């Protein structure tokens, strides 16, 4: 008889209301995998996109899944069991991970559940000194900031451009972070500061005190001040916000500078960037346990911290998605599983 467990199930694409808390078969770890008893899981933009069926993509790119799906990639929890070939982790270890991303981006990685299977290469020991809520908030957002700003960490083909993304040295540089109050943005501010950059954070005014506390040297409230009229000669802009008119950010960069786009879809300024001698680059974040082990040391000693916007029980995932859809998020939204 199949052992059942609790999970948030998606039986059809749509709004937050299509997420239903119910029973699902408990997964078993395959060769080279670890079964994690999930204590917390966090929300990320791909969760919202998949729940909605990736309707913003061309039809030929949209998913054709087998329902039900279980959303979510980011987890923190405790090792429940290990599969064959696993000696690096033991039952009872506290761990965190970004699960099978982007491999399972169109079918769900299974994190909104009490148990999830995690490939060995994607797992790391949870940092000591932070709880499961904070640890669950880290993986995708922190790996995104890390792979853009510090080390790519893989040689997979880049889906967004013909060349691999290559982070520039940040020591002594001036870095502007657009969308600094969100999940990726608030971590990018801290990573850039840790690497020796002078950091200018751009967000709405409600985030100013937090971002200055996290190390921002200057703050721009985009709701009252034009970024492109406020600063110039930036070495690097990392845009964690996306949306229309990303091209305006070229105006704040010096010749020879760089513009990193976390979500490059819709950017149309490549010709203008070439005229200005600006490198425009993007990349797809990928699961990486070794990098989580490295960033975990910074989380554990307080050099970097994950800001939590709000916490909801797993059974209220639909309410958490409603919160995410309202925007103006400060840090991460997390689901508490136990």
Describe the structure.
There is one protein chain. The protein is an alpha/beta fold. It is 22% helix and 27% strand. It has 9 helices and 15 strands. The two termini are 25 Å apart.
Helix content, binned percent: 10-25%
Structural class: alpha/beta
**What is the count of β-strands?**
15
Count of DSSP-assigned helices: 9
Rounded mean pLDDT score: 96
Basic shape: globular
Which CATH first-tier class of the largest domain would you pick? Alpha Beta
The tally of domains stands at: 2
Question: What value does the Rg take, in angstroms?
Answer: 20 Å
**CATH architecture designation of the largest domain:** Alpha-Beta Complex
User: Runs with pLDDT <50, length 5+?
Assistant: none
Largest sheet: 7 strands, mixed
Strand content: 25-35%
CATH fold description of the largest domain = Quinone Oxidoreductase, Chain A, domain 1
Cα separation of the termini: 25 Å
CATH superfamily of the largest domain: Medium-chain alcohol dehydrogenases, catalytic domain
Q: What is the H/E order?
A: EEEHEEEEHHEHEHEHEEHEHEHE
List the helices and strands and how they pair.
Layout (H helix, E strand, L loop, with lengths): L3 E7 L8 E7 L7 E10 L2 H7 L22 E9 L11 E5 L16 E5 L3 E3 L6 H5 L2 H11 L24 E5 L4 H12 L3 E6 L4 H6 L4 E4 L5 H4 L3 E6 L13 E9 L8 H7 L2 E3 L7 H12 L7 E6 L3 H10 L5 E5 L2
Parallel strand pairs: 8-9, 8-11, 9-10, 11-12, 12-13, 14-15
Antiparallel strand pairs: 1-2, 3-4, 3-6, 3-15, 4-5, 5-7
Helix pairs in contact: 3-4
